[in-house]
Structure prediction request, 202 residues.
Amino acid sequence: MSSTELDEMIKALSHPVRRDILNWLKQPELYFSDQEHPLSFGVCAGLIDQKTGLSQSTVSAHLATLQRAGFISRKKVGQWNFFARNEEIIKQFLSRLNEQL
Amino acid sequence: MSSTELDEMIKALSHPVRRDILNWLKQPELYFSDQEHPLSFGVCAGLIDQKTGLSQSTVSAHLATLQRAGFISRKKVGQWNFFARNEEIIKQFLSRLNEQL
DNA sequence: ATTATATATTGCTATATCGCGATTTAACGA
DNA sequence: TCGTTAAATCGCGATATAGCAATATATAAT
Prediction:
């Protein structure tokens, strides 16, 4: 992970809503039990929109930021987009931070 | 550490120069060997100014940000201000992030 | 084809952050 | 007291970020 990538990751975490989203995605069955599609796909954007209480476009931008940073992945199924944590990247990020900080 | 404090800490880290400063302070004898005062006091602001290449006022603001976040402490001796890492807080921050992320 | 749904993208305003030079404050020395 | 040095604070312009409504795009259903 380059220094530029690390920077992008930390910046992605520097907004409480984005950290909330990452946390919700940690236990989808707890926070998104009402999803009609299997949670194994991930959580679809609309439900995340609802949970934040922010507008659809704002949340879409937050999700894009998290994805660019590598923290989440997107899986498109039909007209829905499902998001899930990228645990491997998150682990790498944490160990990098533990060394470097 | 409250959620507001955590937020302030992550924001403090979300600027590369502030992360650089934290890193330099990890090994003062390596990066600030030319300091005339004992490094046990910490590193004085002027030397950090030089090392960043940014203006005095800009670096002063960065140092204030790091201090508000709790990452560094300030020790005033005569007309100089010496800064040092607050290892305990940094450790707490990392373990909090490891849990929460 | 048309309509409906899900979500990304665009255009905009408001606010926050960064960086600088200038000024102020504080401590020291002559 | 006066000048010097160190560093914080102020005022400013430039850029980045966040939020929204409106629009565009893509898929699905009728």
